[in-house]
Amino acid sequence: GPDGAGKTTLMRTTAGLLVPDAGAVTVLGLDATHDSLAVQSALGYMPQRFGLYEDLTVQENLDLYARLQGVPKGERAARYEELTRMTGLEPFTTRLAGHLSGGMKQKLGLACTLIRPPRLLLLDEPTVGVDPLSRRELWSIVYRLVREQGMSVLLSTAYLDEAERCDEVILIHEGEVLGRGPPQRFTTPLAGRTYAVSVPESLKKRTVHERLADAPDVVDAVIQGEHIRLVMAAHITPDLQRLLPGVRGVSIEPIAPRFEDSFIATLRDGADAEGAGAVAAPAPADAPPDAGAEHDTVIEVRGLQRRFGDFYAVRNLTFEVRRGEVFGLLGANGAGKSTTFRMLCGLLPPSGGELRVAGADLRTAAADVRARIGYMSQKFSLYGNLSVRENLEFFAGAYGLGGRRRRERIAWALSGFDLAPVREAVSGELPLGFKQRLSLACALMHEPRILFLDEPTSGIDPVARRGFWRRINVLAERGVTVLVTTHSMEEAEYCDRLMLIAAGEILALGTPREIKARARTPGHTHPSMEDAFIALIEEHERERGAAA
Fold it and tell me: Residue 31: is it exposed, middle or buried by C-beta count within 10 angstroms (0-12/13-18/19+)?
C-alpha cells in the first residue's frame, strides 16, 4: 500500500507490539494481544529501522542478539557461521556496524533477526535505501529461508517488482483491504489497458511524458527505457493524434500489464487518489525560464579526489553537468556516491582536484555557492518537533527571506506541494510522502538554480514518487539543474545523463540508452537499467579480482 496505508501498523500489531482497538490477530495459533510474549518469542521481526549498535562490530552485534534471544553458548558458533556465510558478512565480522554500507547493514539486521530461527519472519520494507545488487542478494536469502527451512515470511515493500515475487499480495489503503490474492490476480484485469509509446531521440522524453501524464483517459504514464508506459482508462483505445496532437515520430503498441500498473490503477479507480499521496499537478512555476544557454556548464569537476587516511573514497573523477540537465549518480552501497555528492554541495572539502559550481571554486567560495543551491538529504533532516508551517517559516528565514516575499514563498509551498491540509501537523509524525514534499519545498524556498537530491524518494510509494518527479521535470524544463543520487532504476530513466560509480571511480557515463547498450549481449538484446547496473558492477568486481 501507499505511504500511510497502515502497513507498519499491521506489522507491529502482528508482532504483538501494538494493541488493536477492535478485532484480533492470531499468529501461529496464539493471540497477538493476550499472548504477545509467546508470539514475540516465536517470530522474527525486522522493523524499518533495525536497532543495530553502530559502535559495535558485526560479531559483537551478533553476540548481543544471541544473548538477548537466549541462544545457548554451545550453538552460537555454528549459527554465526551459517548466518555470516548466507549473508556474505564472513569477511567483515571485525568491522564496526556504523562503517558498513546500507546493504550490509540490512544483511546484518537480518542475520540478527534470524539468530534464533523463527517460524514466522516479519520484514518491514527491508530493501529501502539498498542498491539493486544488494536487493537481489537479500531476496535470494529470503527465498532460501522459505525453500530450505520452510519459514513463512510476511513483508511490506515500497518496490512493486518485489510484490510480484511473492506468493500472495494484500493491497491496503487507508487501513482497508482493496484486494488480496496472487500477483496475477491483480494484473489479469488490466489486459488491453497497457501500452508502450516509443519516443525518437529527436524528442525529449521528459516533455512527451508530461503531455501524456496530463492527457485525458490516461490513468498512469511513466518513463521506462526508450518508451513511455501508459495505463489507459477501462474500455479506452489510445489515439496518439488525440493524446499528442502535433507530435511526429512517436508510435504505440500494446504490452503486457505488470503489478505496478495494477497498483496505480486500483488506487486511482477505487480510492481517493489524493489520500494516497497521488500525482498532484506540478508545483506552480515560481520563476521565468532561465535565460542562460541550455548547454552552459554549471558544475565542472576535474580529477576530484577524497581520502580518509590511506583510503581513497573517490579518485580522479572528471565530469560536467549542464544547465537544465537532470544528472544522476548511481552506484552500489559504499561506491563513493554520497562522498562525491557532499563535496559537490560544499559539505565536504576535496583532498584533490578542481571543483566549480555555479562558476565559483568550491575550495575558496563554498559559503557563497551554498546560498545558490538547494539541498534535500536522504534522511528527513527537518525539525520533526516543529509543524509543517513552522519548518517553512524557519527555512524562509534561514535563506534570508523576509516580509512580503517570505509570506509569498510560504503560501507557494503550502499550495504547490499540497501541504495546506497538514500545515499545523507535527512534521516528524507525517507519512514519508508528506515529509518528502515538505523537504523539497524547503529546499526550493529561495529559488535555487541548482538542486541536489540525495536518494529523494527512498522508501516512498510509486504514487508519491510519480508526483515528485513531475515536479522535478517542471523545474528542469525551466532551467534548474538537478543532480540526484538514486537506487531506483525507474528514477534513473528520468535522468538526461547518468554516472555509474564503483570503488570511487567512474565506471560508465552517458545517457540511459548508452549505458544500457554497454550491457547488451546476443542473448539479452534489451537489458533494463537494473540489468545494466548489475552487469557493469559485476564485471568491474571480476576485473578487480583478476587484477588482485
Answer: middle
Sorted by sequence, the CB contacts under 8 Å of residue 314 that are 6+ apart come out as 304, 305, 306, 336, 339, 340, 343, 350, 504
User: What are the backbone angles phi and psi of residue 134, rounded to the nearest 5°?
Assistant: -70, -35
Give which of 2, 15, 3 is closest to 122, Cα–Cα: 15
Secondary structure E strands in 157-216: 169-173, 176-181, 194-198
Dist. CA 509–CA 494, nearest whole Å: 15
Q: Is the dihedral of CA 204, 230, 263, 331 positive or negative?
A: negative
Element (H, E) at 514: helix 512-517
What pLDDT shows up at residue 282?
54
How far is the C-alpha of 56 from the C-alpha of 221, rounded, in Å? 46
Confidence at residue 548, expressed as pLDDT on a 0 to 100 scale: 60
User: If you average pLDDT over residues 143-162, what whole number do you get?
Assistant: 90
Q: Are strands 194-198 and 251-254 parallel, antiparallel or unpaired?
A: antiparallel
Banded pLDDT at 277 (limits 50, 70, 90):
very low
d(C-alpha 18, C-alpha 226), whole Å:
46
Residue pair 281/472 in contact (Cβ under 8 Å)? The answer is no
Neighbours of 97 (CB within 10 A): 20
Q: What is the CA radius of gyration of the chain?
A: 24
Give the other-Cβ count within 10 Å of 109's Cβ.
Answer: 22
In the chain, the amino acid numbered 142 is V
Neighbouring C-alpha atoms within 13 Å toward the C-beta of 283: 30
How far from 227 is each of 253, 256, 329, 466, CA to CA, in Å? 10, 14, 22, 16
Which pLDDT value is given to residue 134? 83
> Residues 486-530: pLDDT tens digits?
888 888 888 999 999 988 999 999 999 899 999 888 888 888 888
Phi, then psi, of 389 in degrees rounded to 5:
-60, -40
What's the CA gap between 230 and 222, in Å, rounded? Answer: 7
The shares of helix, strand and coil residues in the chain, as percent rounded to the nearest 5, are: 40, 20, 35
CB proximity list for 354: less than 8 A, separation 6 or greater: 300, 301, 302, 303, 304, 361
Mean pLDDT of 524-537: 86
Q: Backbone phi, then psi, for 400, in 5-degree steps?
A: 80, 20
What domains, with CATH codes, occur in the chain?
Answer: 7-158 (3.40.50.300), 184-276 (3.30.70.100)
- If you search the block for the grid coordinates 548489475, which residue do you land on? 534
The residue type at 257: P
Q: Report the percentage of the chain scoring pLDDT > 90.
A: 52
Q: Where are the alpha helices (DSSP H) in 313-444?
A: 337-344, 362-370, 388-398, 403-416, 432-443
For residue 272, which phi and psi values (nearest 5 degrees)?
-70, 105
Q: CA-based angle 394:396:397, to the nearest 5?
A: 65
Phi-psi region of 181 (alpha: psi -120 to 50; beta: other; left: phi over 0): left
User: pLDDT tens, 436-495?
Assistant: 889 999 999 999 999 999 888 877 778 888 888 888 988 998 899 999 998 888 888 889
Whole-angstrom Cα distance, residue 199 to residue 209?
A: 9
